[in-house]
Amino acid sequence: MANDPTVTIINNANGSRHEYPLKFGSLGPGAIDISSLYRESGVFTYDPGFMATASCHSAITFIDGDQGVLLYRGYPIEQLAARASFLEVAYLLYYGELPDEKQLGEFEQIIMRHTMINENLKDFLDGFHYDAHPMAILCGVVGSLSAFYHDSIDVNNPRYREVSAHRLIAKLPTIAAASYKHYIGEPFMYPRNDLRYCANFLYMMFATPCADYEPSLIAEKALNLLFILHADHEQNASTSTVRLAGSSGANPFACIAAGIASLWGPAHGGANEAVLDMLTEIGHVDNVPKFIARAKDKDDSFRLMGFGHRVYKNYDPRAKIIREVCHQVLAELADNKNPLFDLALELERIALEDEYFVERKLYPNVDFYSGIIYQALGIPRSMFTVMFALARTVGWVSHWTEMMSDSALRIGRPRQIYHGSPPRDYVPISKR
Ligand code: CMC
Asked: How far apart are CA 107 and CA 90, in angstroms?
């Protein structure tokens, strides 16, 4: 359209001028559409780490990093955290609208009907070394689901995509709990479909065939909240990994396994485990200044885990909610003398007064306090990132489905600036 804003890019090397449309979504800054740049001007753009690049259109999640705002399908995270159930949020993220009672009831039934895993997958689990990290098991077993569901493999069929999404949301808790049971050498517990989603997960984690176990309401409530907060976060590394893998038409289970692999890194979902390791290493509030000094030292690779974020240059709204809930959960679980929580609060207080952190706008992120709640619920550190993956599966399948339904879908294929050798002739081995 003639009046649409444009941006002119001038190539000073040859004086050519090229005009590109500026595109706006419903919220947030505009983006220059440079998809025809190379064709028209012969140059690429260079943006390592996607510091200033939008990779897609999406209607799922919105973040305003300066204001500390997070919306799922337009709903503020604070309202969903206070009032919704995790499966309600899963429905919202996947289908785009909050469900009415009937829709939610049907969705819960569908998900709970898919909770079992194929018996042969248990042999697969048994093949892992006894002390394999649960994230390694999760990644392998979720990828292997692609070998079990040939009936819904056509990624271009919307109904098959939906069934795959349901299966993933339903089976992740079963696989996650099974990976933990394998790790601690206890028998695998079959899902109980009469329980709610979070209660069923707690049951599969902590029940044994030898004794009765009823999941506590406090634990279920806390888990429900943490899962909602972790359910989606727009185009983060793991979600972008799922999208990139899926853009080739790959099987959804394999794409989610790729997302799990990406999430595991300590700069991403692996940070929640690293935070507790760090707090344990710090050990006492008297040692906080020493570790803050290390975090600021450019010659030291130590970073304050659970601090900083690519998008938030303000308090991560999820961390704010979790910090508040930490107080309640620890009090309800009679764990209100938790020394690691006191240490975390003190570390945050000192860091937020320090010029280094203030200048760089480094605040606690979602991973800073989540591990403290998981620990209070009896969930071991090695499972923290698994918990994140379980919840984020909802976001991953929503993004994968959104991308696969987009008529503009093209295979993701970044370009490069080549620094290798210019053309040269092959030298026979005897002459090298
Ligand atoms: N401790 C000390 N310094 C930090 C930290 C930190 N945690 N985070 C960033 N900085 C410094 C960094 O050294 C750099 O300083 P300078 O400008 O002097 O070079 C500046 O702040 C900007 O950091 P960056 O690494 O360029 O920022 P980024 O957007 O590339 O990285 C991050 C974001 C989350 C990877 C990073 O802040 C970090 O490594 N944090 C610790 C790990 C963590 O908590 N990750 C969880 C992220 S939130 C949940 C999730 O995504 O799963």
From this structure: 10
Protein residue closest via CA to atom 26 of ligand 1: 310
The Cα-based distances of 43 to 13, 37, 46, 406, 414 in angstroms read 11, 7, 10, 27, 13
| Atom 15 of ligand 1, residue of closest alpha carbon | 360
Kindly name the residue from 166, 316, 367, 399 that is annotated as catalytic.
367
pLDDT surpassing 80 at residue 334: no
pLDDT attached to residue 81: 97
pLDDT band at 353 (very low <50, low <70, confident <90, very high): very high
- Average pLDDT of the residues in 416-424: 97
Is 399 catalytic? The answer is no
Q: How many CB atoms lie within 10 A of CB 245?
A: 22
Please identify which of the residues 232, 309, 316, 399 carries the catalytic annotation.
Answer: 309
Cα dist. 180→35, 48, 194, 222, 316 in Å? 45, 36, 22, 19, 29
Q: Catalytic residue at 150?
A: no
Which of 231, 212, 157 has its CA nearest to residue 388? 231
Cα-to-centroid distance, 310 and ligand 1 (Å): 7
CA-nearest residue for atom 9, ligand 1, is 308
